[in-house]
Structures are given as C-alpha cells and as structure tokens.
Amino acid sequence: MLSIKNLHASIEGSPILNGINLEIKAGEVHAIMGPNGSGKSTLASVLAGREEYEVTQGEVIFQGKDLLELSPEDRAREGVFLAFQYPVEIPGVSSTNFLRTAINQVRSYRGQDPLDAVKFLSLMKEKMKLVEIDQKLLSRSLNEGFSGGEKKRNEIFQMAMLEPTLSILDETDSGLDIDALRVVSNGVNHLKSKDNATIVVTHYQRLLDYIVPDYVHVLYKGRIVKSGTKDLALELEEKGYDWIKEEVDGTTV
Amino acid sequence: MTTILKDNISENFLAALPSIKDDKALNLLKDQGLPSTKNEEYKYTAITKKIASDITDFHQASPALLSDQDISGAAIDGLEAYILVLNNGILDLKHSTLPVSGFAITEIADSTTAPFHTDDITNDSFMALNRLSYLKGISIHIPRNTVLDKPVMVLNFIQSTAGQIISPKIWIEGAENAEAIFLEKTISLDKNPYFLNGSIEVKVGSNSHLHYYRIQNQSKQAIEVNSFHADVSKDATFTSFVLSLQGNMIRNNVTLNLNGSGCVGNMYGLYILNGKTHVDNHTNVDHTQPHCDSNELYKGILGDSSRGVFNGKIFVRQDAQKTNAFQQNNNILLSEDATVNTKPQLEIWADDVKCSHGCTTGQLDEEAMFYLQARGIGKEQARALLLFAFAGDVIDHIKVDAFKDYCIDLIHETLGTNF
User: Fold this and answer.
1) Is residue B91 part of a domain?
2) Domain end (from B260, B294, B325)
3) pLDDT grade for B117, boundaries at 50, 70 and 90
C-alpha cells in the first residue's frame, strides 16, 4: 500500500530525515518510536504534505501513485489521514460544517454524489458513538476551547467519518489519561480492517498495549535504525533508547 | 471672501456655496481648514489631498432622475422594510414608503432650525463643512413608546454629473422606549468621482433601542467622509454597524456619547477591501455615567494594495464607575502590498471599571489552512472558510436576517468565493 524509499527531508536547510525506507501492506499496523527529535513527527508531516518540509531525495508511492506529487488535500482525498499531534483550533468554523465540507469534497473527488443533510447526520451519529463524543462539542467551533482529550477524540472522530485507507496517528496518545487513551484506542481498533493500514507514531510504549502493532520501528537521527515486533517496544520500555543510540553512534563513528 | 483661508480646497468649497448659513461653522473652517496628514487624526488618510486631486466641480450635486427600476434594483431580497430614498442627499418622498404612524419626518433648511446638536463641531472641520453645505436636512422623530414594525431602509442614491459634492444631513431622535432599526445603502449611479460628506446625528432617548447599519459599497471613484454622532440616554441601547467594501477613500468618524447611566453603546465594523480602496474608521466612545457598557469590534480583510486604518478612542470619566468597555480590532492581510494602521487609545479616570482592548494584524493562519487541507478541503475553499469565519463574529451582531444574508453575499462576492 505504502512504499517509502530512501526518503530525505529537511526544514529550512537542516536535514531531519536521512533515508527512510518502509513498506506497509494493507491490514498492518506499524508503530514508529524513537527519542525526542529523531524525526517521527517530521515523517508524519511529510507524508501528509506539510509545506514547510522540503523533500530532498527519495520517493513515496501510495497505492501506485507518487504521493509527494500530490497537494495535501489530494492526499487526503486519496485516503491518507493524519491525526494531528496538536489539532488546530479554528474559531468560527463548527466541526459539523467543517466535516460536511470535507466529506463532500472528498466524495466529489471520487466521483460520488454529496451526502445530503439527513445522511450526513445519521453517519455522524453512528461515528460519534465510537469515540464517545458529545454532539454539543461538535456544534461548537472546531477544537476551540476543547480539552486535550477532546481534541484527540475529535481527531479519531474525523478519521472515522473520512474512513481513510492509511491513517497516521502522530503522538495521539501524548497527554491523554488512561480513560481517554482507552476511548481513542478503541476507536482506532474498531476502524482497523484488512483493507486499511495504520502508522502509529508514539513516544510511549503504553499506547501499544491498546493498539497492538504488527511491526515496531525505531527512528533515530532521521533513519530507521531497528525494526522488530511488539517485543521491541517492550524492550525499549524496559531499557530506554540509550542502548540503541550507542549501537548506532558506535557503528557510525 | 475677505479672510485668507488655510487651504485652497476650503476656498473651492466655500466659493461654490449658494449662501453661508452658519457663521460658527464658517469660522471653524476658516480657522482650521480641511485636515492634512499633519493633523494627527488624519495622519494615514490624505483625504483632503484626494479631494483636491479628484474633484473638479465643487457645487452640490443636483438631484438625479431616479426611476422606479433604480429603487426596485436596490431592494434586498426577502427584506421587509420601509424605504427612505435620498436623491443626492435630498429626500425623495415620491419613491419612499414610510411608516404612516409613529414616524415624523421634516426637512430642515439650515442649522437655526436644527432639532438638536449632539456635538459641537469644533472636533472636525468636515462636520463643519457639512453644516455649511447641506441643502435640505432630514429630521426623523420616533415618538415615545413607538416600536417600528419593520426596519427603515435608507437608499442613498448618488449621481454626480452636475456638481460633485453630496452633503446629506440626517437627525434621528428616538424618544423614550422607542425602538427602530435603520439600514443604509449607498448606491453610485455612475462612475463619476464625487465627494460624499454626510453627517448623521442621533438622539437615543431613555430606555430606547436604536440601531443604524450601513453598507459602503460604492463606485471605485467615491470619496466619502461620514460623521456619525449619537447621544445615548439612560438605559438605552445604540448600535452602529458599518460594512465597507468599495470606494476610493472612505473615512468614518463614529462618536458615541454615553450620557445616561445603564446605557449600552455598540460599534461594529467590517472592512473587506481590494484594489486600492482606502478605509479609515475613527471611533470615539465617551463614558460619562456609571454602569454603562460599550462594545466595539472592528475587523478587516485586506487584499491587493488596499489600506485600512483603525483608531479607537475610549474615555472613561471619573463618574463613570462600573463601566465595561471592550474594544477589539483584528486584521488579516492577504497581500504584501496591503497595509493596516491600527491604534487603540484609552483614557480612564474612574477606578472601578473593566476595560480591555486589543489589536492584531496577521496573515491567514497557515497551520489552520494545512489542517483543513489535510482533511480534503481544497485550498480556495479552505481560505474562504477561514476568512468567512474571521468575519462571522462581526456579522453575527446584525439583527435583521435578510440584511445579514445580503451582507454575507456581498462579502462572498468581494472575496471572490462561494460556498
């Protein structure tokens, strides 16, 4: 589904990603871990098309298409979804109005008719249950005055509404208490199918108790330096990142 | 003229007047002249210079030939309203549809018969010029306990083929417990340059509720100065709303004098500009009595090489305890050539008050743009959604739905977007 080859990216001239290689198939969950500043969020941003990052080398093929050639909105319309680490507050735009605009633009790109108000509302009601989000919250301005947990739940709610093929969760667990973490993970697990894939970017192993990955990759200095199964995450939880840093820095010196 | 005037432009204005009907106004104009940019209040708005360069005929414009189509063409869809037609500033009763009761309208020939004065003219020579120039002022009186069942739409038609100066003068008085909403729209009938120098004075009686909403969407040659003064009495509410979209250069002076305890003064403004349009909003709210609120929100979206100026003065006098005064001015610049000058000025002598002010000027929020795009919303649509959301909280203060929808349509048109 997704094939990343030798991906290099930099911001304002300083390189952050230094040759990422990653293959993701439908039905898989990949966790990306790593110490602070290793490039995890940059990878998520580059895949979603954030303009500040400049891709200097490499390619990303998503379902046969050159992802890097597409605008952020076209990536979303093709089925890529980024759950933001810091969801943006947008005063004056209600979640409902925003989502209806988004869904109908995606549908129009795919040659589908727009959803009418009735169908849209019933879809919304169905998906709201999944992340236990209150309708009142959705009639308010998008994310404005939401708590951290509400913002993250709203991200997963949007994901449920848009039904992406590839979901990238950028530190969705950061700052969540255990109840919110359960709700969010439950939502993500519920949306998982054999046809879609998930990339979970996280700093904490705890999330992976709830969203169980098929593969775990450790990012360090802009490269994947170690890959394994969920046992690797447990090992990291126990030993920290120092041993990996030593391994990598030792061989490159 | 024996006295030497401070500037040639004042001389041009005075020479074209049929008679001098107000010595005080004349002396003020002689003393001060029309403001140059050396005057702090006109620092960013060289309107006197603009008049000098664009206006060639300083006579008051003679009334235009108005057709029924002009009137129906200016109507707003779905709006149930009385119609008050001004033809180059002169009341046109034939085309007007006014309330049959609870509404008295009289024409005023000069300031000796003026129903009242809200402010002495020493503050601004454009107001003095208006007082010298208006041909027939209009005085509207809404009696005690009268609630107008529909808003009054003021259609301000301008045609400047013979004479390029238009000087409308309106007095509105709402007596105790009166309620009325005025909606004003200026319509340029042709593309000749003109200088519209209007003055509106409002007396808001105790416990009455008056609102005056304006749309400035004129020809690109229009130069306008508007002096708007309201005296607000005890327990009354007054709201001014101005939507400025098109013109050459527009200066709005809005002054609210909160003269009675427990009254509320609201000033809302939205300027959405492109091309070279220059809009300057100077506002002034004077709290002299306790327990009064003033709310002020002005927002601007500026494209191309347009220019916006905002100056908001709030005075809270020593007796005006328990005042709540809020002021906000926010601007979005869409182009590198667009400019905004914004300045809040608060002077507070009372010690038990809540006052706040803030101004921001920035670009469209890139992070918000990316967020919307990352959900599949195209760039143009995302931009429109954000800009409209920005303007929305000003528009939300309009209490007449059909007028509000009309403003929304005009905004979409100006921003070149639609939903």
Assistant:
1) yes
2) B260
3) confident
Q: How many residues does chain B have?
A: 419
On whether residue B301 sits in a domain, the answer given is no
- What tokens does A48 get? 């979603």
CATH code, domain carrying A175: 3.40.50.300
Q: Measured between CB atoms, which of A84, A92, A105 is closest to B376?
A: A105
Residue in this structure with the two tokens 């195209």, named with its chain if needed: B378
| SS3 label, residue A184 | helix
- The alpha-carbon gap from A250 to the nearest alpha carbon of chain B, in Å, equals 39
Residue position matching structure tokens 């709210």: B285
B63 and B199, same domain (yes or no): yes
Residue B373 touches chain A, beta carbons under 8 Å: yes
- What letters, b where the CB count within 10 A reaches 16 and e where it falls short, cover B296-310? bbbbbbbbebbbbbb
Highest mean pLDDT among A129-133, B34-38, B177-181: B177-181
Residues B167, B200: contact at Cβ < 8 Å? no
> pLDDT per residue over B351-376, tens digit each?
999 999 999 999 999 999 999 999 99
Question: CB within 8 A of A48, min separation 6: which ones?
Answer: A72, A75, A76, A80, A82, A168, B374
Q: What type of residue sits at position B302? A: L
Is B302 among the domain residues? no
**Closest Cα to residue B85, out of B317, B73, A208?**
B73
Which residue stretches of A89-177 are H helix?
95-109, 117-130, 135-139, 148-162
Q: At what angle do helices A117-130 and A178-191 cross, to 10 degrees?
A: 130
How many domains is chain A built from?
A: 1
Bridge partners for A228 per DSSP: A216
Helix axes of B379-395 and B366-373: crossing angle, nearest 10 degrees: 120
Q: So what's the pLDDT on residue A5?
A: 96
The pair of three-digit structure tokens given for residue A253, joined into one six-digit string:
């010196």
Residues of B in contact with A141 (CB under 8 A): 389
- Give the whole-angstrom CA distance, residue B386 versus residue B365: 8
List the A80-83 sheet strands across, edge first: A80-83, A166-170, A197-201, A29-33, A215-220, A223-228
> Is B157 strand, coil or helix?
strand
Which residues of A are less than 8 Å from B393 in CB distance? 91-92
Contacts of A163 in chain B (CB under 8 A): none
C-alpha A197/C-alpha A249 separation (Å) is 32
Domain that holds residue A49: 2-252
Which range of residues forms the domain containing residue B90?
Answer: 8-260
The total domain count for chain B is 2
- In this prediction, residues B89-105 reach a mean pLDDT of 95
B375, B386, B417: which to substitute to probe chain A, counting the most A Cβ within 10 Å?
A: B375
- Asked whether residue B52 is domain-assigned, the answer is yes
